[in-house]
Each structure stands twice: as C-alpha cells, then as structure tokens.
User: Fold RNA polymerase sigma-70 factor (ECF subfamily) from Streptomyces eurocidicus.
Amino acid sequence: MAEDVFTEHRPLLFTIAYEMLGSASDAEDVLQESYLRWSAVDPAEVEHPRAYLVRVVTRQALNHLRAVRARREEYVGTWLPEPVRTGPGVSEDAVLAESVSMAMMLVLETLNPTERAVFVLHDVFGYTHGEIAVSIGKAEATVRQIAHRARRHVHARRRRSEPDSATGREVVRRFLRAAATGEVRALMDLLAPDVVVFADGGGKVRTVRRPVHGRDDVARFVLGVTRAGTSAARFEHVTCNGMPAARFPGAAEADGEPGWLLAFEIRDGRITGLYGMRNPDKLHRADAVRPLDRGGNRPWKP
Assistant:
C-alpha cells in the first residue's frame, strides 16, 4: 500500500525535487529519504497522501539544497544542471518544458533555497501561497513576499526558448552539418547575435571554463572544437530538459567513456544558447528517460 501510493506520485515528486536541486542524482537521493519517512507512517492515517508527500519532498529538497550550495560555489568552471532525457509529453507542456530547460535551471540557481522552493511550487506547479506556507513552515504573508521577490528576479533574467519540435530538430541538423563541413556562412546564419555557449566539464574533462558570448566568437569556438577532432557528424537526436539536443558517442563508450551532450536553446529559428555537458559524472546518470509531471489540476490540500 505505502509503496503503491509513493509510486503513483513519484513522477511529480521527482520533478519537484529536480527543479529545486538541478540534479537528477540529488533528486533521487531526496526521494529515497522521503520514501523512508513515508514508509514509517501508516498511510491509512494520512488523509491526503499526495499533499503529505509533496511536503516531505519539499522539506528534504530544501535541506539538501542548503547542504550542496557550498560545493557548487567551489565547482571548477561553469556549473550546468545535470541533464535529464525527457519524453514528448514534456515538450507538449510549455510551462514544464520551460521550467526544466537549461536556461531556466541556471536562473533558478541564482535564487536562495527558500526563494527557489517557493517559485517552483507556485509558478510551475500552481500551489497557493497558503499551501506553500504549510509545506515550508512559514507564514502565508512571508511566502507571498518571497514569491514576488523570486518572480521578479527570474523574469529579469530568464531566456525564453522553444520546446523540442520538428522545426528545432531541423535547426540542430543544419547547425551540426555546417559545423562538420566548416560552412561558416551557414553556421553564422543559424546563430542569434546574442548567442551564448555554456560548457560543463566539472574539472574532469577539458572544455571552455567561461561562457562564450556573441555570434562571431561562438562560431569560431564551434569551428575550433570541430577542427580539434570532435565529430559533429555522428550523433543521436534526443530531447533533453524539454529542449532539442544531440548526444555524441565517446571514442570508447564500451570502456565507460560517456561522450558528450549538446542541448540547443532555439527562438524564432535561430540558436540563442548552446549547453554542452562533458562532465562524465553527470552524463553517466543522464541517459535514462525521466518521466516528469506537474501533477495536473488535482487539488493540493494541506
């Protein structure tokens, strides 16, 4: 009984934890801790299991986020969220697709833990200030102020992109063909003037440690990487964090080399952001498709 209830709500609980933490592995740890707490109670005595589980996961995720913030401040190079491969349902949900995109996850990383929890629960999942107040143990008026501050912060920094689609995949295909063949004009035509490249090697794989800004510098960077021997011709198209992405095999994946992943932020047919994941620790955990869920319109009763 307890396991069945937890399994039923697991996609929603994982999505909340992941959006609060930016790490699928940390989200899994939170779910494991939350399940242990859930299994210690009698489900028959819990009037609203979903609400109870959301509260437990939120509090566990908050504790976890506070603990890992110091580690992220010491991270070597650019920190990117651990990518998750998502199914078509995420791309069809515009709110969910944007909320788990690499661009949004980076913005959420600039919030403090409480602001992030309130923003995720209110703006992504639609919970009321009163419901969130019960979940995080603060007064409703305080939660309302936190929500306003977090929303203003996010809206000032957010980068909008289109979810994965056939059009986006065609842009990715043309971009990778231009990179592989060295067609500079074709490459430049696909890049927005303010395009940015972010790359995460975690200090374990050589890559650029600071973002690369602007069409000219990004084009030079992409062509330089291709000339250095990184193939842009052989790839698998995947949906990653609701975004079109390309998965490149490593030279020796059979020996545990995970290759790398490139996610594309696209707006109006042009690439506005490139997110390269090369950190092997994050890639090893990112290949399974993750079911994400906003929980629909079911009432959330505290």
Q: What stands out?
A: The chain is about 50% helix and 15% strand.
